[in-house]
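Much of the work behind modern protein science is quiet bookkeeping, done one molecule at a time. The protein below has been through that process, and both of its lines are reproduced in full.
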Amino acid sequence: MRIALLQLNQQLGDPAANGAAIEAAYANALAGGAELAVTPELAVVGYVAEDRMWETGLRNRVAVESARLAKLSGLVPLVFGTFSPSPSGRLFNELWWCQDGSVRQVIRKRLLPSYDVFEEHRWFEPSPETPKLIEHGGHRMGLSICEDLWADREFSAMPVRYACDPIADLAKAGATLLLNASASPTMLGSWPPAGQAAPWTIPSKEQQRKKLIQGLAKKHGMPLIYADRVGADSWHLFDGGSCLVRPDGSWQGGQRFTEGIVWVDTEAIGSSWPVYPNEGAWLRDALGMGLRDNLSKQGLEAVVIGLSGGIDSSVVAALATEILGPHRVLGVALPTAYSSGESLELAKDQAQRLGIKWLCLDAGAPFAGAASALKTVFPDRAFSVTDENLQSRARALLLMALTSEPAVHQLLGTERMAALNTGNKSEAATGYFTLYGDGIGAFSILGDCLKARVYALAQELGEAVTPGILSRVPTAELRPGQTDEASLAPYAILDAILGAALEAQRPEEGLAEDLACLLEGADLESARKVLPRILGLLRRTEFKRRQLPFNLKVSPKAFGQGRRMPLTAP
């Protein structure tokens, strides 16, 4: 049976646009000889439209569009994800099997994830029933929705253990083919990569997915078809990953991070599961997609980036240029008296290398004005951390001013622009940033990337990043002789601690021993010495992170919706 998996990029809360995309993809599937066409989970409304789904108007529009799609179905079934009201006032997350202009069967999601970034119990009601099998193409098909796939305790890496196993129930009912429609965000594993050092490293979603799908296909002795969405919405990144896996483990599927039809055939033998060459290549595709979709879906066309001559801002500028083109990126140097000539030259070289628009603004002027105002009431004050923060906030003031400046609109050819945050996760975790200073921006591309992953992405971007920046000692240049590693800890040590404590969520009591998996010798001794201070910074700076822009989630535990810590607990 030739099946078209409609790997779509939804518009949240826009059933008319999503319905039109489904209709067009279904027409293409028919033209390509499909015997069945399947969309991802909640394809009509988009996963997940959050509290928009409480709106009566949106619920009505979803109902109208779902009914329209059902009517356009023909002899070849169209299976699409939608919802309908439940008696509780919440919703049922559903798949509609539509054929010959009518709904032939409705399949409802049984397991609702409520952990990390998921909180489906807020909007949905679980179905208590195993759906009936559907006879089609010589198969008895068992359909399920996303989390229903992840209950098997032998293969699932999910933190929740469920009381039922929907896939096992379908197999017991006599299914000969399993089909799961998903909207499952992708991610890398915890730092360092699985298999590289620590046995407790959390594997990537791709590694988890491979283990699960191949394991279930072999265990139940039947092909398993997986239809997933692609695209980015806020912090969620979806890579697609739609595929068919046979009991022998052979794989059929399509390209990651690409919208379109993925063709699979139940009678064909596939190949081995594809593997990304390295983390840098994955980050380039994932973060590039996240940048593109978050800008376009928010109606933004251009970006303003503060270029410091450092690795973070250079990587953000290179990626933004790759996605938007150089004509829609403005790089801005913002030197003060403590900025080195080297920083300015590297920033300028980075802008010229990318071919982007370039400005140099004196951040020392607004800094001097603020410092002078303080001097009028504290005439004897000396230079302090206050002045370091004032410099950062002076830069932020100018960057934000540029986003609304008509001359910049003319320069970039649009009024629809935003400043991008250029911070990384290692610094956010320790509070090593200035609120209302380098903490500003519409969203953060690198906010879930430890410093090591920033360098991995820079290596992947190649000549787009000025070589001198890669070898430079990281520094914020807010006082004479300042370096980031002197203020915090060497990044190799800092990332090892954060990879274990934050991303892999290892117990604090055993962290000193855990670090022995990652470090040795003097590095291990140094890590154990700074461990209490780093953990203290991680706890005490939560109030600062609550005010950061949202970031694109690429790790098992990102700051934001999936990590909710109280501000008042020790």
User: Anything to note?
Assistant: The mean pLDDT is 96. The domain at 283-482+539-545 is CATH 3.40.50.620 (Rossmann fold). The chain is about 35% helix and 15% strand.
